[in-house]
Hints:
alpha/beta, Rossmann fold, 10 strands, 3-stranded mixed sheet
Amino acid sequence: MLGRILKRFRPVPPTLNSLEAYKRWAASYPPHAHNPLMQAEQQAMLDLLPDMQGKLALDLACGTGRYSRLAAERGASVIIGMDNSAAMLKRSQRRRLVLADAGAIPLASSSVDVVFCGLALGHLPRLAPPLYEISRVLKPGGCALVSDFHPLLALNGGRRTFTTPNGQTYAVEHHTHLYSDYHQAARLVGLHVADVLEPRADHPSAPAGWPVAIIFRFEKNG
């Protein structure tokens, strides 16, 4: 009981919009899953991964290139990393990097086999623009793997936080999107939910057994 009371009154760190947050976070942001939530999220993404051999992949909101590297290791022939944070792109060791917003992807329609979008769409207030763009650039029959901070965690007070080298902790702006929000937005742009995983892991805001992330495999109607 005392633990729950203390948790309730834990100071809330200041919240930054995603561009400002990743500008400050970039210098210390590693190109791999660096906490239990991300490790659980990444394993679930890989569990839903299609055959990547010879495929053209888009790592949307790529950050330092975590999913670009994993796509390359699994045989993708061309990998494009795209992010709206110049600071994060500068930290990536990948080639073919593009500075762009998820709501305006500068690629041709029906040009991509697989889209990765890891833990990014929660930064946006609306799902429709990025999901429309994902559907537009996917080839018919292509798929998108999209993960998000689990809505149960967010509704329970969970925050996506980071600490700068000088010891200041910040929360990153997050908008809670429910399963139904994703389902409806995807359906309207010609994507269907082929699979969903909700991995569990240790997290300060997750009671025992709660999921910490939600991962969708969307497929584009042929």
